[in-house]
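Explain my protein.
***
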Amino acid sequence: GRLVSKCTMPNRPRAPSGPALLSTACLPTDVAAKLLTPAGHVEAAAVLRNALQMADTDESAILLEMYAALFKFAADQAFTALQATALLTVMRHTHAVCTSTPLYNFEETFAGFKAALLAFCVHRPGSSMALFSLPQSRAIIAHVVGSYFRHFRLYKCACAPEAGLTLAIRCVTPPPELLPEEATAAEPAEPVEVEETRTASKSRTKSKR
């Protein structure tokens, strides 16, 4: 027989350009500016839920906690509202790469993170924009590695879709039949012969006596 397996997975997103990434932020700069204030840290989860239109699920709660910590880090680094929005966009793209497949893809996700961050560190009109300096990009990498990628398996198990596996078994050839010689050899011995042998041995014993 032959075992055929098929695993259906969604397409893995590629890292677009910096302007294209920033256009998918879905977070106005005035909201980002509010989240960078000490008062905004308290209600960061509720503000982000409304701004990003996230459902009330366990997965959304996990992501909102990560986004709130991200804005706390941006405030500590004295980022502008535009820089904080760009950082949020980088992490949303990174998480999209992580959850694009149920399989383990740490290296691919980290490569997607670096590509998305690079789109905001180099000034190339039409493809990237220089929003972060070199020290700022190093601080971002250290923060993301110590938070998101440190708990990568937890984010993967909590947010990634389940794998769909389809198995099909096909019988190519019919089962082989036993040859006549093999069928004869497989038959058990007759119990009569055993009884006759035992009777003969008993009669010999009596004659010796």
Notes: Residues 199 and 205 are 10 Å apart (CA to CA). The radius of gyration is 35 Å. The longest helix spans residues 58-76.
